[in-house]
Amino acid sequence: VQLQASGGGLVQAGGSLRLSCAASGRTFSRYAMGWFRQAPGKEREFVAVISWSSGSTYYLDSVKGRFTISRDSARNTVYLQMNSLKPEDTAVYYCAATDRVAIPTTAYDIKYWGEGTLVTVSS
Question: Residue 2: how many CB atoms within 10 A of its CB?
Fold first, then answer.
């Protein structure tokens, strides 16, 4: 399984970015896919997840109403639309996939990781 993330960059507070994660290597119908992030000196934390089969979504409280996770089944791609970005959103964002649990919310739940993409939000 390969997860290829892209879309990070530098943006001012209040701005927007869209991250993409292209998945390949297997069928993902039983998987949950999502995004985690890791800021300098902090542990990797859950951000958002989507069930590939049902489309159900789940978010970290601090990003609710600002971030939206979605999927394109035809392209095996997951997106994270990030609006109203804040400096505290600055982190390396990692695409993740798993079939270990229905809603992964910790790094231990994750089976596959993509390479990170850096998001920097300036104040």
Answer: 11
CA distance 111 to 41: 23
d(CA 122, CA 13): 6
**Which of 68, 30, 18 has the alpha carbon at shortest distance from 48?**
68
Question: Tens digits of per-residue pLDDT, 54-72?
Answer: 999 999 999 999 999 999 9
The β-bridge relationship of strands 2-6 and 17-24 is antiparallel
* 44 pLDDT tier (thresholds 50, 70, 90): very high
Q: What is the pLDDT of residues 85-123, one digit of tens each?
A: 999 999 999 999 999 988 899 999 999 999 999 999 999
Assign 11 to helix, strand or coil.
Answer: strand
Indicate whether 29 pLDDT > 90. Answer: no
Count, residues in the chain = 123
- Beta-sheet strands, E only, within 26-116: 32-38, 45-51, 57-59, 67-72, 77-82, 91-98, 112-113
